[in-house]
């Protein structure tokens, strides 16, 4: 039942990796300048350790249970660490929320961020991005009986999202007649939806599908299934760490070729029955 429902939710989505995220320069060698000793390549070599910023409350993507983190982003983080020569025991997972990802990278509280993190020009002013390793799209989660069919039906409705996220910003700029309520994490929005305090939750389809499939919400919610943005997920790191960024893209290329990207999917989000998206390595960032 649970698997079938999640598969149905996924089935309604279009997530083809067809959109060029940021230029698609395919030069991607692990050379490059600008990292110096402070870059992730040097740090990983020297310390054999890496601190990775991830989400803690997004089922299927980044979920903390006790001291364990699971999900697709976690598996991608492990792949990157391994490619940098860092064993799983050398990884420190650090919980991030949407709004503190750039500051955590800038202040060195994390080495990289793998946290449903959309690559965009505004964020690229502050941080660099490897990837994209997945393309999501903004969607809506609503009660099963809701008549909301898309973002144009949000006028006068209470819609919940997360501060510092691209979906919250899009509601503010493109759907001004909606009443936006912001929390620091999506699970708080989902609790508000379950309690009837808001009419909809908006963020990436893949995140919403994870909440809809949770046992405690069985039969309560539906994902509308008409994505209205493109959210290419990147791996954030320090802005000047060009060599680190190129290395991340090289690791992703290798993971696409040797099946480990597909395995990361199959072990997590793929359990819903949805096939892994193709990692289109021609669309990786140029790291500049
Ligand atoms: N991908 C979007 C973003 O980076 C929404 C998901 C999130 O907030 O993590 O803002």
Automatic annotation (TrEMBL):
Pfam families linked: SBP_bac_3
Keyword Transport on entry: yes
Single Gene Ontology BP annotation: amino acid transport
Signal peptide positions on this chain: 1-21
Keywords, in A-Z order: Signal, Transport
Span of domain Solute-binding protein family 3/N-terminal: 49-272
GO cellular component: extracellular region; outer membrane-bounded periplasmic space
Family under the similarity heading: Belongs to the bacterial solute-binding protein 3 family.
Protein name: Glutamate-binding protein
Species: Paractinoplanes ferrugineus
């Amino acid at each position: 039942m649970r698997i079938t429902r999640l598969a149905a939710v996924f089935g309604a989505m279009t997530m083809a990796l067809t959109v060029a995220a940021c230029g698609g320069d395919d030069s991607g060698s692990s050379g490059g300048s600008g990292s110096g000793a402070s870059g992730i390549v040097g740090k990983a070599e020297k310390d054999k350790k890496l601190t990775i910023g991830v989400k803690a409350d997004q089922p299927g993507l980044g979920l903390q249970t006790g001291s364990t983190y699971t999900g697709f982003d976690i598996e991608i983080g492990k792949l990157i660490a391994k490619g940098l020569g860092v064993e799983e025991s050398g990884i420190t997972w650090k919980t991030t929320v949407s709004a503190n990802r750039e500051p955590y990278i800038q202040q060195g509280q994390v080495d990289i961020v793998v946290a449903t993190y959309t690559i965009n020009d505004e964020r690229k002013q502050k941080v660099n991005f490897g990837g994209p390793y997945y393309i999501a799209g903004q969607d809506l989660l609503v009660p099963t009986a809701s008549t909301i069919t898309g973002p144009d039906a949000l006028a006068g409705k209470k819609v919940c999202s997360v501060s510092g996220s691209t979906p919250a910003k899009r509601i503010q700029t493109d759907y001004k007649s909606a009443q936006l309520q912001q929390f620091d994490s999506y699970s708080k929005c989902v609790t508000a939806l379950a309690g009837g305090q808001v009419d909809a939750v908006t963020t990436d389809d893949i995140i919403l599908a994870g909440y809809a499939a949770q046992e405690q919400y069985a039969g309560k919610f539906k994902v509308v299934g008409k994505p209205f943005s493109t959210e290419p997920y990147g791996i954030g790191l320090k802005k000047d760490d060009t060599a680190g960024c190129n290395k991340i893209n090289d690791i992703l290329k290798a993971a696409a070729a040797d099946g480990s990207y597909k395995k990361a999917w199959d072990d997590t989000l793929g359990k819903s029955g949805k096939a892994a998206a193709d990692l289109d390595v021609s669309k990786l960032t140029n790291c500049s």
